[in-house]
Amino acid sequence: MDPLVPAFVAVLLAGATDRPPLLAAILSDRSGRGALWGAIVGQAAGFGLAAIGGMLVAPALTPNARDLMLAVALIAAATSVPLPARIKDRLGDWRLPPFLTGLLGMAVLALGDRSQFLVFALVARTPDPVTGAIGGALAGAILLLASATLGERDWLKLPLAAVRAVATLLLGLTGAILGLGALRLL
Fold first, then answer.
1. Which of 18, 49, 154, 158 has most Cβ atoms within 10 angstroms of its Cβ?
2. pLDDT band with cut points at 50, 70 and 90 for residue 89
3. Dihedral angle at the C-alpha atoms of 17, 108, 38, 52, nearest 10 degrees?
4. What pLDDT, on the 0 to 100 scale, is given for residue 107?
């Protein structure tokens, strides 16, 4: 199975209420579009690293173990989606160029987040790491562009509670079904 579309959908569901779009909205309000492009590059690099990790781990896992790892990633995302995104530090007074501010801010914030774990687990199930990274990066870029276009105030006005509820249900249900199948209980 090609992980392009599953990675795209999973990252959209898990990432819509995560901290990276909120950071992109804050950076866009504060530093303009240069910081947004840095954030997109930083997040895409994170998805690339997750895909490489999934590719490296895949040969050591049985098919049921790969399915179970994806189920754990989906359920972990489902349990963290209901928590509202918060960024406590407003990045202080960084004196870096906007592109570098966005790149470093997103690299630090997104390292090991739920969307990257989903891409890691999806790529581990397939022999093609490139399409998983592309699917995750496209979904992440769409979320970052949307939040940056709206800005922090308008992004937070969106019905994010409803999005969190739907995403939790879809991710949790998919993870449970996949996990039961991996354990041969379904």
1. 18
2. low
3. -90
4. 86
